[in-house]
């Protein structure tokens, strides 16, 4: 079990860079996948991309509703529908905001053994895949929030976990899985760091 450090500096060159395609899939690639799963579970989260642990390669992992997925060189080949909902991210802990995504996607890529795989996903699984693939291009969910004033800080709950930063839409996904509704919002207190999306928020925009 190897737990890697998750990058939370939103200006980090690997987090903000373009991940490279994996050429040869070997034991080091499979170890990276195992490390991503281990790190994601401890966080805890439902998805993680290699750039989030400082590895500039096109590799993502997702675990949602009992199903595990590991994609090497993933790409979305088909998408349809549109819905807006709340997201958070391990690389932007405590921050949350509404992001519009496709409701249905088809992905293709390679698995840990190098075999080509295709997966059709809908709903929250589709959202998670899109979120993780964005990381491979250096994009954070904060960049996709159209109304920047809706980005808000989410405090830790009684267990010490922050709803908005529980790992790539994990808390929101779990809420939907439990058929609950509503996202916690920040209270506007000063002294919090600004989320770094495409630019730093001005106080009047974010009300933070």
Descriptive report:
The chain has a five-stranded antiparallel beta sheet with strand order 1-2-3-6-7. The protein has a three-stranded antiparallel beta sheet with strand order 4-5-8. It has a domain at 27-84 and 98-145: Alpha-Beta Complex (Peptide Deformylase), CATH 3.90.45. The protein has 208 residues and is of the alpha+beta class. The chain is globular. It is 20% helix and 25% strand. The model is unreliable at 158-168, 170-191 and 197-208 (pLDDT under 50). It is built from four helices and eight strands; from the N terminus they run H-E-E-E-E-E-E-E-H-E-H-H. Strand 6 (104-110) and strand 7 (116-122) form a beta hairpin. It has helices spanning 27-42, 123-135, 170-177, 203-206, and strands at residues 47-49, 59-64, 67-80, 83-87, 95-101, 104-110, 116-122, 152-153.
Low-confidence stretches: 158-168, 170-191, 197-208
Report the average pLDDT across residues. Answer: 82
Cα distance spanning the termini: 38 Å
Helix content percent band: 10-25%
């Amino acid at each position: 079990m190897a737990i890697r450090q998750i990058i939370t500096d939103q200006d980090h060159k690997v987090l903000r860079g373009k991940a490279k395609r994996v050429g040869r899939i070997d034991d080091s690639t499979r170890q990276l996948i195992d490390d991503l799963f281990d790190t994601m579970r401890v966080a805890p989260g439902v998805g993680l991309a290699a750039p989030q642990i400082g590895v500039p390669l096109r590799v993502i992992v997702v675990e949602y509703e009992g199903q595990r997925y590991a994609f090497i060189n993933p790409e979305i080949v088909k998408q349809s529908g549109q819905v807006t909902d709340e997201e958070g991210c391990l690389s932007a802990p405590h921050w949350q905001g509404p992001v519009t995504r496709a409701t249905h996607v088809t992905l293709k890529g390679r698995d840990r053994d190098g075999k080509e795989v295709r997966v059709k996903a809908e709903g929250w699984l589709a959202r998670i895949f899109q979120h993780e693939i964005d990381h491979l291009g250096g994009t954070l969910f904060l960049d996709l929030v159209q109304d920047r004033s809706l980005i808000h800080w989410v405090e830790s709950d009684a267990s010490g976990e922050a709803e908005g930063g529980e790992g790539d839409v994990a808390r929101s996904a779990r809420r939907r899985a439990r058929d609950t509704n509503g996202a916690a919002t920040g209270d506007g207190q000063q002294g919090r760091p600004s989320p770094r999306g495409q630019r730093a928020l001005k106080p009047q925009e974010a009300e933070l």
